Structures are given as structure tokens and as C-alpha cells.
Task: inverse folding
């Protein structure tokens, strides 16, 4: 569950930042961003968003959208470690489709896929591990994994990489991950229009609409079992576990929480960019 401190912030936010849910079976939600009235530091700290987050029912996520005349700012927070594992291992994409123009679609992929999350990371990412007495160790482990994320990709609508950039760059795109108070925090800043000669912009101005979609790649138990099997094969040698015990261990892993087939994150918003209140 969210920490009590964060939960209070989200409750306050819901009264200020309301979602208008589109009728029908579509998962697309329509909302208005809020005008940036405070400094937004893209640092993986949720404190800049305490009045602009809203919980997504049944998704174990909270999100926020802000903009000014130059940038769109996005935050996403979750305490669901299964979702965190999906994002860290398969990669996480934020898509931008301005005013319904699919030809202008591009995405920011961060974190990048990390297929080497094996052994300790995989074994520790099941729900049982996140009991209160284990959270200190897990926070250290997650913090270490987040520090390793130093680059992001800009991709086209076919997921072809257009550019690989360092987190520190001159293109106006900033993205950061954080882990505080048992919550995983994602922050992103992207230029709206080409006023500063940026290469990649959303091409939408305040008052216009942008479809924003969050996506992870498919991530399931078969991938995990194959990865663990490969790691076990590479490490065989003196003192190796007998094959019967290895097979039994594999069966236990299959039954552990977090190792069943997982649905990828795929959630969309039609965001109306706020105009200046002046």
C-alpha cells in the first residue's frame, strides 16, 4: 500500500485534479493537465507533485500531468513491485500522439530493457519479499538498479530507435527514476514545440490535446525460467546443485507470486494541455 504520507497527498490531489472518464469500454481517459505553478525538478522525487497526482483505479498507479508554454511534465508512481520489475526488465515507453496525428507519434523509452536481471533480482521481486522487515534491503537493491539507468531512447511509432541520449543532454528531454518511501517514482519532461531548436518535440501547444500512452513489453514466467536456466548453465561447476534439486527449485519458482504470466502495462490518456492563467 502507499505510505500514509503519500496517501494523504493523493487524497488531496484527487479533489483538485479530476479525471473525466470516457464512456464505453475504451481504456483511454480524458483529463486536463494543470499549469506549472511551481518548479518541477526531474529528479525522481515526488514532492513537486503533491497537489497534482491522482490514483488510477485497479491499476496500482498514480499519475500527474503539468505543462507550461514550453514543456510537458509527467509523473508516475507505484508501489507494485511486479510493475516495477516489468519496467526495469522489459523497458518502459511513454508515447506521444499530438492531436490524433499518428504520423507525429514518438516515444521515450526509459528505463531501457535490462535482460540481465537474473538470479537475486528475480528471486527477490516476488510479493512475499516485500514484507516490512525486508523493505530496507529491497530499497538498497532497487536504488542500485536505478543508478545503472543512465541513457534513454527516442523511438518512432514502429519502435525503431531514432536516438540514444544520456540523461544529461541539450535536447530538452529529461527523465529520472527514484525510489522513496517504498514507492517507485518516474518523472519525465518533454518539449512541446520547436521554439528552442529541439530535435524531438510533441508538436502541440497549450489548449491542444495530446494522447499519452504508457507501455511495457510482454514479461512472463517463461522468460524468467529461461533466464534462470541460462544463468544456472553458465555457473555449473564444483558444488553444482544436482539436476533433480534444480528441477524442484524451478517448480517452486513457477509457483511463487510474481512469476505467473503478467499483463503488460498499456494505459492511455487524452491530455488537454492547460493554457496560461494570465
Result:
Amino acid at each position: 500500500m502507499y505510505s500514509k504520507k503519500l496517501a494523504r497527498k493523493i487524497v488531496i490531489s484527487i479533489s483538485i485534479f479530476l479525471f473525466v472518464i470516457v464512456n464505453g469500454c475504451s481504456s483511454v481517459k480524458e483529463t486536463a493537465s494543470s499549469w506549472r505553478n511551481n518548479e518541477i525538478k526531474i529528479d525522481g522525487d515526488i514532492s513537486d507533485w503533491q497537489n497534482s497526482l491522482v490514483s488510477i483505479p485497479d491499476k496500482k498507479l498514480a499519475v500527474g500531468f503539468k505543462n507550461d508554454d514550453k514543456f510537458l511534465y509527467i509523473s508516475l508512481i507505484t508501489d507494485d513491485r511486479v510493475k516495477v520489475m516489468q519496467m526495469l526488465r522489459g523497458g518502459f515507453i511513454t508515447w506521444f500522439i499530438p492531436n490524433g496525428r499518428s504520423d507525429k507519434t514518438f516515444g521515450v523509452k526509459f528505463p531501457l530493457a535490462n535482460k540481465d536481471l537474473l538470479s537475486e533480482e528475480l528471486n527477490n521481486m516476488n510479493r512475499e519479499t516485500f514484507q516490512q522487515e525486508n523493505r530496507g534491503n529491497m530499497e538498497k537493491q532497487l536504488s542500485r538498479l536505478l543508478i545503472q539507468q543512465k541513457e534513454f531512447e527516442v523511438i518512432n511509432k514502429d519502435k525503431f530507435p531514432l536516438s540514444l541520449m544520456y540523461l544529461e543532454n541539450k535536447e530538452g528531454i529529461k527523465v529520472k527514476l527514484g525510489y522513496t518511501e517504498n514507492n517507485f517514482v518516474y518523472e519525465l519532461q518533454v518539449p512541446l514545440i520547436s521554439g528552442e531548436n529541439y530535435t524531438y518535440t510533441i508538436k502541440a501547444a497549450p489548449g491542444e490535446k495530446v494522447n499519452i500512452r504508457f507501455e511495457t513489453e510482454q514479461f512472463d514466467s517463461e522468460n524468467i525460467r529461461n533466464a534462470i536456466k541460462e544463468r544456472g548453465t553458465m555457473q555449473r561447476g564444483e558444488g553444482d546443485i544436482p539436476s533433480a534439486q534444480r528441477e524442484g527449485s524451478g517448480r517452486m519458482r513457477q509457483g511463487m507470486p510474481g512469476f505467473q504470466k503478467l499483463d503488460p502495462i498499456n494505459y492511455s490518456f487524452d491530455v488537454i494541455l492547460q493554457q496560461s492563467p494570465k
User: Anything to note?
Assistant: The chain has one domain: 12-219+262-272. Confidence is low (pLDDT under 50) at residues 6-26, 126-130, 233-260. Residues 81 and 183 are 9 Å apart (CA to CA).
